[in-house]
Write a structure and sequence with these properties.
Elements (H helix, E strand, L loop, with lengths): L2 H15 L4 H9 L3 H19 L2 E4 L1 E6 L25 H13 L4 E6 L7 H14 L4 E5 L5 H10 L3 E3 L7 H7 L6 H14 L2 E8 L6 H14 L3 E6 L16 H14 L9 H6 L3 H7 L4 E2 L6 H4 L15 H14 L3 E3 L9
Parallel strand pairs: 1-8, 1-9, 2-3, 3-4, 4-5, 5-6, 6-7
Helix pairs in contact: 1-3, 3-10, 5-6, 6-8
Length: about 350
């Protein structure tokens, strides 16, 4: 049996049983046989089509604060980065972003920010309930880090529908390489279990190519995702940021990210899987290639243009100067060019 035939057989096995072994993961990530890699992407794309057709869900991203109390070693808005140009959006500014987004057809708003103590539970609840009162047909997604279970419950009661919290790595040793000592993988995982128990549509995820990552740690990620059964998985390449301890670390690659997107789609056929901005940052057609590899969500930026360049989780981020309308129609045309249709809907998980 040739390597090509063996890998194609493995891909068919993964598709059929929705599981992967460590040996199979090694083969899929390490093969140079691009014909087999194309088969992997094609299989993942077909699997996404079975549930979602040629539809791509669009989410409006609002990055509302770049203050953060944490000091994650990879992140440009880490607490100790004194060079970060800090900002916060007012409730009025956030509502204005939603208003322009709604007019452009967005029906999901993703409120993302650092872990900023200024935004108390009360403030977050006011913002969420304000959006839901004005736009009851929209979903609100929060991505604001680790909180107490009671806090998550209060946001949910205020109307939040979804919560994104990347676990970053499911390997304890690797987690401690990426985060300060006061942060723990156990707490991060517990937050995700709490969110799921409350009733959110939950998203986890990880960077591809982060310092210290191996095929073994990636396998642990896939096992944790299988255990958690999230509704969304967000992965994108690690990209270094010049004002962090990882400034000189090598970035993750598009190729490995695309392979992992495909693998995740095959293991979790109905998952909501974004083609991330980071993917579009490392290659001009990164997001298109992500969609063709099994992804089915894109998240254009609705934040005010004057703050976009300040939300620097990593360097050279794209689309920081484009108005929301430009981002929206640019994305629609990009998806159309590869045979996909951006849909105006909440874009919920298929079985939710």
């Amino acid at each position: 049996m040739t390597e090509n035939t063996a890998i194609i057989k493995i891909i068919d096995e993964i598709t059929a049983c929705r599981n992967i072994t460590i040996e199979q993961l090694h083969m899929l990530l390490e093969t140079d046989d691009m014909q087999a890699v194309d088969y992997l992407r094609k299989s993942a794309s077909e699997k996404a089509h079975e549930t979602y057709g040629n539809q791509v869900f669009i989410r409006g991203l609002i990055e509302f604060t770049n203050y953060c109390k944490n000091d994650c070693l990879y992140c440009g808005i880490r607490h100790s980065n004194t060079l970060a140009d800090r900002y916060r959006l007012s409730t009025e500014q956030i509502m204005a972003c939603c208003e322009s987004g709604y007019e452009l057809g967005f029906r999901t708003f993703v409120l993302q920010g650092g872990e900023d103590p200024y935004y108390t539970d009360e403030r977050i609840c006011e913002i969420v309930s304000g959006i839901k009162a004005k736009y009851p047909d929209c979903a609100v997604t929060l991505s604001i880090g680790e909180k107490l279970k009671e806090s998550y419950q209060s946001y949910f009661d205020a109307g939040a529908d979804r919560y994104l919290l990347r676990h970053e790595t499911a390997d304890k040793k690797h987690y401690s390489r990426l985060h300060p000592v006061e942060m723990s993988l156990a707490n991060r995982k517990q937050c995700l279990w709490d969110l799921k128990e409350i009733g959110y549509q939950v998203g986890c995820g990880f960077m591809v190519g982060s310092p210290g990552q191996t095929v073994e740690t990636l396998y642990e990620d896939l096992q944790f995702i299988k255990e958690l059964e999230p509704h969304m998985v967000g992965i994108g390449p690690f990209i270094s940021q010049k004002d962090t301890p990882f400034a000189n670390e090598k970035s993750g690659t598009m190729d490995e990210t695309l392979r992992l997107l495909s693998i995740i789609r095959l293991i979790h056929p109905k998952v909501l899987l974004p083609a991330t901005t980071a993917l579009g940052t490392i290659h001009p057609l990164g997001r298109e290639k992500g969609i063709q590899s099994g992804a089915n969500v894109v998240m254009p930026n609705l934040s005010p243009v004057n703050v976009r360049d300040k939300y620097k989780l990593y360097d050279n981020k794209i689309c920081t100067g484009d108005e929301a309308a430009e981002c929206r129609y640019c994305m629609e045309n990009r998806m159309k060019s590869i045979g996909y249709q951006v849909v105006v809907s909440r874009g919920d998980y298929a079985d939710f």
